[in-house]
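Support case: magnesium ion complex. Customer-provided input:
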Amino acid sequence: MTPLRETVETVERASGEYRYGFVTDIETERAPTGLNEEIVRFISAKKEEPEWLLEWRLKAFRMWLGLEDREPRWANVHFPKIDFQEACYYAAPKQEGDGPASLDEVDPELLRTYEKLGIPLREQEVLAGVAGAGNVAVDAVFDSVSVATTFKDKLAEMGVIFCPISEAVRDHPELVRKYLGSVVPQGDNFYAALNSAVFSDGSFVYVPKGVQCPMELSTYFRINAQGTGQFERTLIIADEGSRVSYLEGCTAPQRDENQLHAAVVELVALKDAEIKYSTVQNWYPGDAEGKGGIYNFVTKRGACRGADSKISWTQVETGSAITWKYPSVLLQGDRSIGEFYSVAISNLRQQADTGTKMIHLGRDTRSTIISKGISAGRGQQTYRGLVRVQPKAGGARNFTQCDSLLIGDTCGGHTVPYIDVRHPGAEVAHEATTSRISDAQLFYCRQRGLDPEEAVSMIVNGFCRDVLQQLPMEFAVEAQKLLGISLEGAVG
Amino acid sequence: MSEPLLTIRNLRASVDDKEVLKGIDLSVAAGEVAAIMGPNGSGKSTLSNVLAGRDGYEVTDGEVRYDGQDLLAMEPEERAATGVFMAFQYPVEIPGVVNATFTRTALNAQRKARDESAIDAIDFLKRARATLARLEMDEDFLRRDVNAGFSGGEKKRNEIFQMAMLEPRLAILDETDSGLDIDALRIVATGVNAMRNPERALVVITHYQRLLEYVVPDSVHVLADGRIARSGDRELALELERAGYAAFQPA
Ligand SMILES: Nc1ncnc2c1ncn2[C@@H]1O[C@H](COP(=O)(O)OP(=O)(O)OP(=O)(O)O)[C@@H](O)[C@H]1O
Ligand SMILES: [Mg+2]
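Agent response - structure generated as follows:
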């Protein structure tokens, strides 16, 4: 047995149902508990940030104070009020001096963690074609800091910048300063303001004019430390005529407490550029009684700034106790295209309120929304989507398809579409279906030899096919397995 | 003589607290083709479902032995893996799942349960293509979603395709001939005949003598009001065609 396979199996044995629920035993450096200006300064100082960024954070912090008690309440999710003074806003694996210059300087315990998770950090393994390690460059974020970015040199040859955002602040301040907060402003919403004040790490990508990024870029997020939130910030800029595909994966240990994950992702596509952003989110969902699990309160938004640009969001959301997430596209450039493909599962006591906003501003802009919601156990699932066509967006077109699949009769599926059309020539089409996995389908599969879990997994994968086939190959296979695992125990 | 492949003794079963099977006795030997005929609502599909292990059918008495095992004690997928196949009277649609994937997954699930190695996609495709050609079916079938948007006849032919791929030891065909046009009936019959061999038993449920002209049965049984009312050879089928079921209807 290969060491990789062995560690994976050990993890599976050790952690029971949630396969990524182990904790890495590593020394952690933390900020004092609580949130105030001092903490914001502490984080900024830890990262040796320039003055302008500290000011930017402090401005966000003051906005957040102004928004206090203004958490979004319209979402169909229920949880006790969060005490933001009880959390810790910075946790990092302890290390000497600067960040790691190469993988050899990364704590071996960390490398082992990523190995257990099946994330390829060692470039030579990727190059040697180790099973499961495709042609993917990886930025791995562990709690608040980025621990390793692979293939940096190869990408640099083509002018592609792919690095931790803290490094981009240092090495490419002009780009960060120009685009940070340009799509999701500091005061956009309660969680975005919080993130802007305390964001720790995340990825930065810049693809120069005319460059087709030669490999998938990927960030792998992991929450490890106890009592911490994760507030990563991702910024991707595709310059004119460029193209990039970016993947994001997430896991967290199994803990009884709830942990907050409030990320912000901003995408900017200039003229003729294309960004494809895929997420497989598998944060710890909590147990069957609803104890523990991640609160995933995330603001993701892309701006199609230039004409003929395109932004495509694909998400497979299987984890988290609560998901509050609406990856959106501002269609500013004429003929720009926005897409949202989503699969979300709510099993156990999970609650997901997710969807998208497509804001048509330019002429002849197009958007497509395909949402597949699956509810099982006592899960609650809401699709919430806005399609807005502004007065100048002549020729705008949208197509929305929302399908809900219910497994069992203790779960719920809801669809809340908002349509706001201010141009008479726009075409907006919305279709919605709700179905159940029927006993007849299950029996048909079992009669052919599939056990009930394989049967559910097959039926669900079929239900989600239109979305799954949008994922890059490496992720599609993982996502299919994940759907099966997430629904284990959903049928008796 | 050795034990028949399938032996049903005094089988009683109810659906929704209504007794539908009222004491079935029936044996089918390996190599045999047994035809079951009977009026609508007499319990033919119920018998198939009970043999395949569908939920909602409560067995209240009797036993079923299959290949020396207690069939009723097994889960549906275990029955499938030991070679029990049922062609559904109303095949089920599974949107988004293509036939090739479905059939290969099923085949490999069965093989895994029998400790056999998995068939890879390429070998599967070769076999699937050859089988489709034999059944005069378009290769397009493999790429279409399981039964979704199929015509009634196409669904039935898809059942025969799956049977041919899964190579069961006991195949129960529940009115596979209903809804087929004359050419399709001949092709399906050819497919069924190709499955006949000394190790395999076929239970063919039908309303029509026509199928039995192509698939000549070794025995014919009349199921009426939840019991095997009469058994005979193929002459019995001809007699039923002439006289109908009047003699078997409850008074
Ligand atoms: N799921 C069910 N719920 C309620 N009643 C059922 C169910 N399945 C079968 N029955 C009843 O059991 C009886 C036998 O039905 P079954 O389908 O076995 O008949 P059949 O012989 O196959 O008829 P046909 O020739 O029309 O296919 C009928 O009265 C039917 O209404
Ligand atoms: Mg019937």
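Chain B touches chain A through 34 residues (CB under 8 Å).

Case will auto-close in a few days if no follow-up is received.
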